Task: inverse folding
């Protein structure tokens, strides 16, 4: 079966955080591919990669970047696949990732990026949101999402 979710990040230094997205997807029974490509450092390679996604069966793209976080916006400019942006905390971050949050979320009308929370929570939520999109046409994923929610609620109520 083809991989339905692709994850891309701007730097290898983003990998520990973005791994949370791939692990969360895996926990929901969804495999993904992960790449490091930069809107600024490798714009041509990024474009070539994006062009392979839809023909390869990818349905959703998760993009993580910090600082001047233009990766998700650049990907969204190149495809009409849903793009989920994860703002990350770069080593020189301003405002604990506020720089990346604003760079990711403030897209011009017509080219949306679904932007989640900064950092690990955002990486996890990007995966869950991707699964929720896939679940609109995949009942098995929907059932796994419901089980996950029930587990969360049980944990809270057990305290
Ligand atoms: C962004 O700049 C990357 O997404 C990363 O979060 C940040 C720092 O990258 P490195 O200088 O560590 O490669 O483009």
Result:
């Amino acid at each position: 079966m083809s991989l339905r979710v692709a994850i891309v990040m701007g730097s290898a230094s983003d990998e520990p955080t973005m791994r949370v997205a791939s692990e969360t997807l895996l926990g929901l029974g969804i495999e993904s591919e992960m790449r490091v490509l930069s809107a600024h450092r490798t714009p041509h390679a990024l474009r070539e990669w994006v062009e392979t996604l839809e023909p390869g069966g990818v349905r959703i793209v998760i993009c993580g970047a910090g600082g001047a976080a233009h990766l998700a916006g650049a990907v969204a400019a190149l495809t009409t696949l849903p793009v989920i942006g994860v703002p990350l905390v770069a080593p020189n971050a301003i405002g604990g990732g506020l720089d990346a949050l604003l760079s990711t979320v403030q897209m011009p009308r017509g080219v949306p990026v679904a932007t989640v929370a900064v950092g690990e929570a955002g990486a996890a939520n990007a995966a869950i949101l991707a699964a929720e999109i896939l679940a609109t046409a995949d009942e098995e994923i929907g059932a796994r999402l419901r089980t996950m929610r029930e587990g969360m609620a049980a944990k809270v109520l057990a305290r």
About this structure: The CA atoms of residues 146 and 152 lie 10 Å apart.
